[in-house]
């Protein structure tokens, strides 16, 4: 009978010490909470530093190397200060135009799409900024369907991204020319939205993130500005137009609380200027009038700082994610559905859309998303 060999006693592994460059965590060691049943997925107290928290720094370094893309479209009538506002937002001459129309230059007979790209850097972070201008929009006597070239351009960028995505040998990093944000400039009439404003936002809010702004708001008194903003919000709500950030995309109560404040402030009453003036011993961006200087970054004078903080400092990444996860995915699903409109999935989704709202609300999130996509495809069959 063979002897029983005792099991080999292995030394306990040495737990590495926390690197000196990693700041200590004030709340003490992380203890994973138990998950699941029957011991499955159950965690235990860590015996020492592992380094999980360095993944944020790893992601930061990788992103710093590749850089960011951000594509912003400006839409509105000529003379509303679109180029000036974009230059003010990014504190550089990034827009296609920095002056108004000259007398010798003819206004385009149709809406043109023109873009210019710049690489701007701040604090070691590089961003390729593309500004898309739409000269000719709303400048004609007959502006019927003048939003169609803009809608076509936006969908063309989705199509370009989709073609790169489905390639067998696709690029490691697909160039992103999709429009992440559309600033729509409302004329400061003080009365109500024009029919053109309503039609544009109604058609384009389905395919792009629209942020409405009241241009040159210093032409309105404080009371006129407040009343005009309230009237615009009521008109948008009555027409079923949801601007970014949409309520259904709020991820949690914190998001909802932050976004509710933004929605209450829309449309932003802004003033743009790339000229500096001396005010109380400080150099400030502003517009000089006979009554004094309208300070662009003074929240008591206009809402430019609210727009900048919202669009760049808190929601820039979310604008990109909503573009990719919602607008682009809707276009992508619609595009694939158009290849086989009579397949079983199409017939099933078509019948699902016809169901009462109460039944559709009880669906799982994935089925609800598919229903939303189907509604869009059925409302706009093959209109790519």
From TrEMBL:
Keyword rRNA processing (UniProt): no
Gene Ontology terms for molecular function: GTP binding
InterPro entries in alphabetical order: G_SEPTIN_dom, P-loop_NTPase, Septin
Keyword Methyltransferase (UniProt): no
Keyword terms of this UniProt record: Cytoplasm, GTP-binding, Nucleotide-binding
Domain of life: Eukaryota
Name assigned to this protein: Neuronal-specific septin-3
Species this protein is from: Cyprinus carpio
